[in-house]
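Structure tokens please, single chain.
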Amino acid sequence: MTEDVQEEKGLNSRLLYPEKSVWAVFWFAILGALAFLGNIYFLGNQWKPPVSSPPANRLFNRQASFNLETDADYLFKYEKITNPHQKIEFAKKEDIADFALALRDLAYGRRSSPVRILHYGDSILTTDELSGRVRYVLQRKFGDAGHGFVLLAKPWQWYNHLGVEQGGTIDKWDIRPFTSAPVKDGIYGLGGVAFLAQRGKNARAWVQTATEGDQGRVVSWFDVSYLEQPGGGSFDIFTDAATQLTIQTDGPDKKIKHHRVQVHLGQSRLRVVSNNDGKLRLFGIIMETGEPGVVYDSLAINGARATALARFDEKHWIEEIRYRDPSLIILMMGANEGANRYLNLEQYRADFRNILTTITSARPNASCLVVGPLDQAMKKPTGGLGSKKMPAKLSRVQKEAAFETGCAFFDTYNAMGGEGSMARWATSGLGGGDFIHPTKSGAQTIGNWLAEALLHAYQSHGKK
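Here you go.
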């Protein structure tokens, strides 16, 4: 190697790794470590990992009355809601009193039984995105006392319950919703759908607690509802420990019965199997923890109109509502009526009032809340989208009937933004392509508004 090459290599080495630079890096690292340790010793460790929080989907979107970063921000930092996006309206404040006082007793530890909410709705409720958001907020604030009622199996492909897993041999059940396949006697249990199994059909269904998420993870008992009837067959109930119970449904008269299965508090699964030995009709399964908190029954009936609830056998329906012992009953229907431009509003008002009278008579000590219809859009002859006329009229009629029967009212139409709102929602990702249903995000947004309104009604009740 020549002397020129050796000199060049030595120069490059000195340029890449100068001795002064190496010592500077060394002393900088030493001083940085000492500063970090001094900070811990004298000031306490100011750096902390982020606190775990609920799922990151937002409780309120940017159109709400105020904007919070996460669900945890709202649930744990804000105890007072002074300006909800849309308030619940009353003819008298007493119309929401039973629900508000039940929550107050629960919050103050004066109540050992859960506060139950029944929420009837049409196809907008079938995915549980809207009702699931209300359930999430209330249970995070007041305690998770269980998921509540679910239909025995999925009567519609898109039927879903957040916080519950379920399945079964769907093709083996004769599924009879009161909307599309009514039964002559009108006995549908609580949820408006009957599941029939005849001889020779190996009909099965199962339901279990959630395997992920913050809620629905534990249960202490399942409650199976079925019809006792002449010529009734039997079915078996299995739990995690392969416990087998045989339930006989033969009886002299038609009567809805319940069988409660106790399990150890925790994750659990229940399975129902038909024995193919007679007529069999089941309805649904209730899941609760046996502890104080909130239970939220999402009772969705695809294609339902409020007036079609008259297809229930009134006696049996009232008995089922009373069995659940709710503190609040919510009725949210209007998607199908709003699409009917020929709807006779005077007749509808009378029929709607009769349905509310039946609901309030079933549980006189419960509060009643009507959640009004959403806006609906249609294509205008001149181009673009405009609102259908019926939803606004329907909202007014439902509000009047609610006030006449002692129910409160939540104005969804106004909360969305009134006339033209569904057109705006459809272009912003909140409204569906049919211009009637909300998207998943839209349903969650309405659920957030409803939860906020319920909390505001609870917090402000009894105060001037």
